[in-house]
Amino acid sequence: MRKKHCEICSKDFDTMYRVQYKQPKAWVFLCESCLLKVKKDNPLYKYGGTWKR
């Protein structure tokens, strides 16, 4: 079973979101909870797709 770790909370999830949200711009995987926190009013936020196991 494939899983990824959330960049912020470091927990394992079956569904992750590939995003850029800070400088330097780098693609990272976030869980839904952390995604909603970083995306709000963030001009650097960019969505790059959904990863599912």
Biggest β-sheet: count, sense, barrel?
Answer: 3 strands, antiparallel
- Which structural category fits the helices and strands? alpha+beta
Strand residues, percent: 35-45%
> In angstroms, what separates the terminal alpha carbons?
7 Å
Count of distinct structural domains: 1
User: Any idea what the shape is?
Assistant: elongated
Q: Indicate the low-confidence ranges by residue numbers.
A: none
Helix-strand pattern, N to C? EEEEHE
Q: For this entry, what is the oligomeric state of its chains? A: single chain
Helix content: 10-25%
Mean pLDDT: 93
Count up the helices.
1
Biggest sheet, strands in spatial order? Answer: 4-3-5
Q: C-alpha Rg, in Å?
A: 11 Å
Number of strands: 5
Short description, anyone?
15% of the residues lie in helices and 38% in strands. With 53 residues, the chain is α+β, with helices and mostly antiparallel strands.
What would your notes on this structure say?
With 53 residues, this protein is α+β, with helices and mostly antiparallel strands. 15% of the residues lie in helices and 38% in strands. It contains one helix and five strands. The strands form two sheets. A three-stranded antiparallel β-sheet has the order 4-3-5. Strands 1-2 form a two-stranded antiparallel ribbon. The N and C termini lie close together (7 Å).
